[in-house]
């Protein structure tokens, strides 16, 4: 009996001890759960009420630092810009600004150029950083991306400089020629010669001002507000008629052909100006007694059928380095030839803006000494058409003579022209 009683007593004591230990463990676990953690201090307990919500809706990249320079809160944009890495502010100048602001409480702002993440070309990311105290222990850093604003400002600055230069040339020439006319008032032949030069410069000035107006219009207006189905045949005929005189002076054949009865959706005036610029460039940059072809076709695309209008010449061609810049304003492949033909350097820029505003694009294929093919790609208007029906190619030659070659074909190496090699025999345009 004594042994049994002793065993029972030991078991009772063990049970009591187990219960006490379990109760203490539960209390300790409960106390640990209620203790503020580092993450909770950095979000709920440390940030003033409402700050988290405000930071989440800011357009700027936001970073909040504590007294140990640890990141308490950072927006997704801050991570995207590479400002925060591994829970630390990764930009040393900004970190130093935060420390100075924490020390004296002054608001600081600076513009910095940061290396762009993920590129090996050394491209800079322009940002504006502003640091301000947030309460007694925190510092708020707001970073604004200025890269696009700087790019637009550079484009605007270059545009103004180019416009000033282009306007200064004919205006200065007119001033000098007017003085020459006055000095040669007793020489009728000299007066006639100087007056002719004045007409040329005045025409160049008028063309420049008009193209500046056209470029401003296509940039600011929405062409789809007044959109309508536009017949491609009519656009081609208008472009050919616009360049008939220049082509006749150089004995250049203009051949038109492709699929009949195609329509694009857009502003007729802008589309006519864009195609006219392409044909005019082809004529101006082609040697005498060569050919310029215009061909249109419909192509299937995932986003809907498109119309491709290709303008092909047998001119001097464009080098690879120039092809990257030919759609820039005032850029000329051959400035001397542009001066001789009266080019302003705005024609292709207008074509690019018209194509983009109509939901299309303009591309170029070219090889030096072989010619160029510019392709204007635009959304098709109307229902599907019988692709097998094609309009006989039409051709005109200034002076009345026609050729028996197919319209729109360039050199055999041209990938753009190969798409139009099945055109039927051309007929003379009226």
Main beta sheet: strand number and arrangement?
A: 7 strands, mixed
C-alpha end-to-end distance: 133 Å
What's the count of strands? 16
Helical element count?
14
Class computed from helices, strands and strand pairing = alpha+beta
- Tell me, briefly, the overall form: elongated
Topology as H/E string?
HHHEEHEEHEEEHHEHHEEHEEHHHEEEHE
Brief descriptors of the model:
430 residues; 14 helices; 46% helix; alpha+beta; 5-stranded antiparallel β-sheet; disordered C terminus
Would you mind describing this structure in some detail?
- By secondary structure, the chain is of the alpha+beta class.
- Helices cover 46% and strands 22% of the residues.
- The chain has 14 helices and 16 strands.
- The strands form four sheets. It has a seven-stranded mixed β-sheet with strand order 13-14-12-11-9-15-16.
- Helix 6 packs antiparallel against helix 7.
- It is elongated.
- The relative contact order is 0.08.
């Amino acid at each position: 009996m004594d042994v049994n009683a002793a065993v029972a007593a030991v078991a009772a004591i063990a049970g009591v001890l187990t219960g006490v230990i379990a109760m203490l463990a539960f209390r300790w676990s409960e106390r640990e759960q209620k203790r503020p953690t580092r993450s909770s201090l950095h979000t709920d307990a440390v940030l003033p009420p409402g700050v988290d919500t405000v930071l989440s809706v800011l357009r700027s990249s936001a970073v909040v630092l504590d007294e140990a320079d640890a990141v308490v809160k950072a927006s997704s944009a801050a991570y995207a810009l590479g400002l925060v890495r591994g829970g630390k502010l990764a930009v040393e100048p900004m970190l130093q600004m935060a420390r100075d602001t924490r020390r004296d409480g002054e608001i600081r702002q600076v513009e910095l150029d940061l290396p762009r993440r993920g590129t090996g070309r050394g491209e800079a990311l322009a940002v504006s950083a502003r640091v301000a105290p947030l309460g007694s222990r925190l510092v708020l850093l707001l970073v604004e991306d200025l890269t696009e604003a700087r790019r637009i400002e550079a484009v605007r600055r270059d545009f103004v400089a180019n416009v000033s230069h282009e306007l200064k040339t004919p205006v200065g020439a007119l001033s000098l020629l007017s003085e020459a006319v006055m000095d040669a008032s007793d020489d009728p032949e000299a007066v006639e010669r100087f007056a002719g030069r004045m007409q040329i410069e005045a025409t160049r000035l008028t063309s420049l001002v008009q193209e500046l107006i056209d470029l401003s219009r296509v940039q600011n207006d929405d062409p789809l507000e007044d959109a309508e189905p536009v017949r491609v045949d009519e656009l081609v005929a208008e472009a050919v008629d616009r360049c008939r005189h220049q082509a006749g002076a150089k004995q250049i054949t203009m051949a038109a052909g492709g699929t009949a009865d195609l329509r694009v959706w857009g502003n007729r005036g802008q589309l006519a100006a864009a195609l006219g610029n392409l044909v005019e460039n082809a004529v101006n940059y082609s040697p005498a007694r060569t050919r310029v072809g215009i061909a249109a076709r419909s192509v299937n695309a995932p986003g809907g059928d498109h119309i491709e209008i290709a303008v092909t010449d047998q001119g001097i061609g464009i080098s690879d380095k120039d092809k990257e810049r030919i759609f820039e304003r005032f850029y000329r492949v051959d400035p001397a030839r542009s001066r001789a033909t009266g080019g302003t350097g705005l024609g292709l820029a207008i074509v690019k803006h018209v194509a983009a505003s109509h939901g299309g694009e303009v591309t170029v294929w070219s090889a030096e000494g072989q010619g160029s093919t510019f392709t204007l790609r635009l959304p098709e208007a109307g229902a599907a058409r019988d692709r097998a029906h094609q309009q006989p190619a039409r051709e005109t030659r200034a002076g009345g003579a026609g050729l028996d070659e197919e319209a729109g074909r360039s050199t055999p190496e041209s990938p753009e022209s190969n798409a139009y090699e099945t055109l039927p025999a051309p007929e003379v345009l009226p």
